[in-house]
Design goal:
Helix 6 runs antiparallel to helix 12. Strands 1-2 form a two-stranded parallel sheet. The chain is globular, with a radius of gyration of 23 Å. The C terminus is likely disordered. With about 300 residues, the protein is mostly helical. It starts with a helix and ends with a helix. It has a domain of about 150 residues: MFS general substrate transporter like domains (Growth Hormone, Chain: A, Up-down Bundle).
Amino acid sequence: MRRWRYIMFICCVPTLALLPLVFLMDESARWLLQQGRQEEATKVLKKAVRLNKAKLTSPLESTLEKLNQANSAPEDRGTSLSSSLEQARAYLRSPIMRTIILVTPLLWFLQSCLYLSVAINANNFNSSNPFLYVCLSGSMDTSAILLMTPLSTRLGRRVIVGGGMFAGGLLFLLELLVSEDLFWLKWILVMGGFLLVAGSFQMNYVYGPELFPTEIRNRGFAFVNLMGCLGFVCAPFITYRLVLIRWWVASVTFGCAAILGSLTLPLLPETWNRSMPDTLQALEERGVRSKDIPAESGCINEDNEESRL
């Protein structure tokens, strides 16, 4: 198909199949409580406990009571400018929170820029057959999503995100050393690098929100996602402009960006198999522990029941 309108139509039509799924989803338990629909909220939480095969350390009623107390707080709490500024200063005074706020956006920017740059770099990596490149890169992206599901239950978030970016960056740099005659090896290195980068990119959508306490998780994820969008904006400039300087500049940029991003992971805490903190204080307490004991599989801590459900 040569007409972009037809291609866009065919790509968008399958998404209509997602609309019926809306009627199968459960409503937010917190929102239901805010609307005074406690019975419906209880059913949603009981269903979550059953499907996750979780064990509550306290009765479900106590969790609902905590949610009710949180929702019964004054609506204007934290909405004033002075309260917002004070809250922001509290986050910046915390060493671990300050590290998350500074490092995570950089990681998202590099990762998003790298992901899209490699995906649209068909003409530079292999100008003879860009259609095959797009087909293979899409297959690698799909494979990455399928691989992340079982790996996320066995490996830590930092290992997957950092290891994938570091190994992918090395493959992009090694591709420069391969002769043009060994085109099949170039394909393997480029597609292997993209598979690793795409896998780490998908895992970061899980890892990123887990880094922030529940009280600011939505705002924190929105912020890092914004930085990722800026990375998407920069991707075309890398793909189409840097290659005009030298043929190898784009590949070197890909490799160095991936390795640089992987080096930021040791600065961030591990979240795998650990209960997510609800407050800044809980995050700091977990950070200063000499041995951070992971939460037992299938067990929900009393202070984190609602966030885990």
